[in-house]
Structure formats: structure tokens, C-alpha cells
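Aim 2 progress update. The chain analyzed this quarter is reproduced below.
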Amino acid sequence: MSSKNLKNPGNRKISHFGEKKLIKRLLSRSRAFQPNSPFFDEFYFKSLNDDAALIDLDDKYLVVTSDLLLESKHLPAKMSAFQKGKKVVTVNVSDLAAMGAKPFGFILSLGLPQDLLMEEYDEIMEGVFKTCQSYEMGLIGGDTNESDELILSGTCLGVVDKNKVLMKEGARPGDVVAVTGPLGVAAAGFEFLLSPLSVKKNLKEILKPSTIKIIVKHALEPHTRLKEGILLAESGFVTSATDITDGLASEVGELVEASENGAGITILETMIPLIPEVEEVTTALDKNPLDLTLYYGEDFELLLTIKEDAFDQLKDKIGLIQVGVVTSSGKMEIVDKEGKTNILKPSGYQHFK
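Predicted C-alpha cells:
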């Protein structure tokens, strides 16, 4: 690549940057262009690096997040219309869960192809309505327009007490690093669903039917850890948190980068929770299960750092699983099964690549 292109980012395509760098580029310029407003405080600007924006409402924050799903990139062919509607709600609620916020409203904008069947449209909306109901919130607005492919764009609104909000920035050396459930299950499901027909046929003969059912359900019908997020926020013991959408390594990188204490994080490979079904799939595909947990994403579990002396209090109550520790190194590291420490690269799923 020429030095001219490096000096002039306007000559470079967004694929050269990747999703994370695009966001960071936006955020680096945001403060200068934001209007003065009584609703914006220092936490508003800090939250721009987080899972959702925080807007000042006296003793609470209005928590606002938005996610866009394109049929060609985010909605596998095997996903039903109902599951598509469910997912656009789920991915948004997960961002609120990561901040300990309780959702109360959902806004949906849809890009609809001309040839979309009314039956499929109704099923999408049924998925939206029922999922909103399961999280005790309502669909409060939205828009529709014609598009070349199905586009589902959701915005979720929630509230959280100012003194309870969870953010990415607070990890401190000595904290325990934990997750709320097993990792790599959805990834195993997508590996199965997206396999060539010949490979999938072979997998159906090798894998247990119960295994296929579990991994496919995790891939097509993700569920958020909203209840756990709210309980963790109320505990007052969590120092940082995020949800795992782009893989464990990517989200660990987010916590390390956001830390204001020079914190690093060391993950212990032997502690990463794997269910037998994931190992069954990776064995059949001759893949490393660690790759599915670190770099694939779509788990929608919460990743958090918690005060060491409080971990045992919450471990059984919420179902936390320790996966590592916060260090003072400022580095991301992983200790493998042989006890060797390696640098952990903060890569994961990228929407632009």
C-alpha cells in the first residue's frame, strides 16, 4: 500500500480499517462535533466506547443501543422468519444486559424486499412481539422502506440507576475475570449450518441428534443474560462488563483497552467453559475448540471482572465461571494447557473485512 494512501485515509476503503477501527475513528471525532446539551455528561462520552449510550436523567441513565442485521451477512438461510425477528430484539437487549439496564421499549425499522411474502413478514413481527414480551418491554415505534434485501434495524431503550451502571472501563489488578455460561456453542452451530452439503451429511451421521439440536438452537435462537446483568449491577461488586458477541478474545481486548488502571487480563485455557457438544463438533471437523470460543462470537454471554473477595458470593447465585484474572501488565495473555503464557491477540468477528 502506498504511503500516500496511509497519509490520506480518504483514499482508503472502509474494509482496510475493519469494524473496530471504524468505530474508534468515529468516537475520536465525536466530542468536537457534539452539541452542548444538559443531557450529556462525562459518562455520556465515556459510554460512546461502551455497549450503549448513557443519557443523563437525574438519578438514572437512559440507556440507548442500536444494532443492524442484514440478511446476507447476519441471518443464515436456515433461520426462520420468526427467529429473525427474535434475533433483532435479542442482540439489542444483550447490550443493555451488559450495562445492567432494564429495557422498556424497542424501535424497529425494516428494509423489505418487494417479493417478501406477507406470511414471512407476519412471522418476523411475531418473533419481535413475543421476544419483546419475554423481556417485559414493548414495541414503541419504527419505520419500513423498500430494499434489495431484508434489513432489520433495532433500537432498544432501557434505564439503570447511575450508581449501578456497568461499563467496560473499570477492571483492576486482582479482579477475577468471569463469564456467565459456556462458550463456543453458537459457533459450533454455525459451523454445522454453514458446512457444505457433503460435510453436513457426514456430520449428521457422526454427531448425536441431541448435539445437533443443542448447537443449532444456540446459533439460531440466542438468548441474552438480562436477568444476570441486572443482578450483577445491583450487587455493586462488578468492576467492568461487556457481552460476548465477537468472541472472547475481542471482548477481553475491549476491557483491557477501556481500563483506566493500566490493567491487563490473563485467560487460562483450562478454565474456558466448553460443553461436550462443542468438543464433539470440533473433533468431527478436526478444529480446535479454543478457536470457536476465542474468535467466533455470537455467544451473548456476559464477560465481567469482579472484585476477588466477592466472586464466591456471586458465583453460585448467578452461575459465574472464572476464566482468568486481571493483572497489572497492561497485556492480553493466555496460559495454555501446558502452562505456557502467550500473547492473546484481540481479534474476533469483523463486520467489515
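The CA atoms of residues 238 and 306 lie 4 Å apart. The chain has two domains: 18-161, 176-343. These observations will guide the mutagenesis experiments scheduled for the next reporting period.
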